[in-house]
Structure prediction request, 470 residues.
Amino acid sequence: MPKPLHDNICDEILFTSLFEKHAKNLHNFLHYKFGEQLNPKDKVQEAFIKLWQNCGKIPSNKAKSFLFTTANNLMLNEAAHQKVVLKHQQIKPKHYTNESPDFVMEEQEYLQKLEKAIANLTEAQRTAFLLNRVEGKRFKEIAELLDISVKAVEKRIYGALKKLREDIKEL
Amino acid sequence: MKREDLIQKWLDHNLTSDELEAFKQLEDYDDLVKLSNGMQHFKAPEYNTSEALNNVMQHINTSKQPPQKKWLSIAMSIAAVFVISFGIYFFTINQDTLVNTQLAEKTTIELPDASSVALNSLSEITFNTHKWNKKRTVDLKGEAFFKVEKGSSFNVNTVYGTVTVYGTQFNVKQRENYFEVICYEGLVGVTYKGKETKLHAGESFLLLNGKLIEKEKELKTQPSWLNNESYFKSMPYKEVIAEFERQYDVNFHVINLDSSQLFTGSFTHNNIENALKSITLPLHLTYKKTDNTITLKRE
Prediction:
């Protein structure tokens, strides 16, 4: 195993660069996994503060997994497995603005179906699929983020897609 | 290329332009794109990294730098250990060792220099182990027999006077209005009211009701109470009764009796019936025992 460049991260510049690198990903990960109601922003902050408090013990190459594990645990402590419902946003993207009322109606119905279908996905499927579709991340990036293999990411995302389509058809 | 592979590649944002064309020809292309576009509505709220970073840095800076904090707390705990252990050390060094005996109890203790002390009933001895090398001093209330090892001067403080010795065996008895020192071996000095009396082996010093009383030479090698017997020679009877009370944990009730009359004799500490007979028969007294009270009556 290569020796990490820094054996601790008790340095504000290094810490700041770590924050810039991981904070957004961590936030999105928490959001897609646990939903909005548990306040992923606060958890990100807490996780980074914990990282700073333990900075002497954590080499820079371990920081990412420390952050993800810590934030994940913080979330789990708070919510004893309540069902996650990701609410779709009411503000529509621009290219829908001039559509007919029929279309808007249909669109709304479709989104409601989608919302329910997403809620029925497993936690792992949902996290991976949303990171892929919404954040536009490639399989490899997701695999790195979640510390799993690319193959596993592929499986989760494809499985999620299949399940969503089935559920939407049924609804 | 198979349909499934195309979808996989599309998912991975990895279609070549040829493949993209092929993908568009798939019958469920519209469906997939619709789903994919629909997903955009579930985007996580915008995360403002720099603002969040500011929050975190603020939080960190208000709660001090962790490494320094760690050093400070380690230093503090080391300091605390020192303070506490010095505290305990000074506390114990000034703490006197106290040994006492209850009614009907005797005990023998060893002093720090291997001198030994036998404590008679209802007596108390106090000494300081830590200062023993500098000063061999004990405080005594009651009666005790000392076997003192050779060394610097050895003092026994009592309320009536101080006994000073240099390697010897002697008995000190200090009771109410009663102070007696008997030297069994070596040389003992008794300081009473600022005046020192030297006692050689067999000599004794007796102070009764504030009066010095001459006694003849002691022939025994150690006090009789060490053999569980109290011996009296021309002693006021009330002293005998007081000693009896101490040895057997009883109370005497005396009727029609002059307790200052002198008594010579002894009683054992092991058998209360025999002991009672020993102290009553010579004076023609009768006794009646109920619970812990003994009534003495002249015939």
The first helix of chain B runs from residue 3 to 11.
